[in-house]
Specification:
By secondary structure, the chain is mostly helical. The protein has one domain: Up-down Bundle (Ferritin), CATH 1.20.1260. The chain is built from 5 helices and no strands. Helix 1 runs antiparallel to helix 4 and helix 4 packs antiparallel against helix 5. The longest helix has 27 residues. It is elongated and about 45 Å long. The model has no long low-confidence stretch (mean pLDDT 86).
Length: 149
């Protein structure tokens, strides 16, 4: 699913939507951890989930510093299928990683767009850049692991 996060007109909106995207990712990794099989894969997925939790926390603090508040609406997108039956059918390492790769592609694109289109302050640029580095690391590991399966 393609997200439009990173195309908003204000930094407050971008940060709010990126925070929600990372919260969605955290939930997706929870589902993935329940459906993956190999312990080494689960270990990486747990680390990536922790990155998304940290991103959401840091973005929430930045949002508050910018004078914004989370808009309280639904998450910006669902990274795993919303239907629990469909989500449960995504079993096995290959299926889980393919689903996460699609999601990480969207997350990478959102951070890249956000850095390229919003006039951010220095602290925001540093935070978004660090988060993008993490997202790229997640995507690279998933791609390499899929290629090795």
């Amino acid at each position: 699913m393609v997200t439009m996060v990173g195309t908003e007109s204000t930094l407050v909106e971008v940060v709010d939507h990126l925070m929600k995207l990372d919260l969605d990712a955290m939930e997706a990794y929870d589902i993935a951890l329940g459906n993956a099989e190999r312990p080494d894969i689960c270990e990486h997925l747990e680390q990536f989930k922790d990155d998304h939790i940290r991103h959401a926390d840091e973005l929430g603090k930045l949002l508050a510093d910018l004078g914004g508040e989370p808009n309280g609406g639904p998450a910006t997108r669902q990274m795993f299928p919303a239907d629990p039956i469909v989500a449960a059918s995504i079993r096995g390492d290959r299926n889980v990683l393919e689903e996460l790769l699609s999601s990480e592609n969207d997350t990478n694109a959102a951070y890249e767009r956000a850095l390229g289109t919003v006039q951010a302050n220095e602290a925001a640029e540093r935070l978004l850049g660090r988060n993008l580095d993490d997202e790229r690391r997640h995507r690279t590991w998933i791609e390499e692991t899929l290629a090795a399966l």
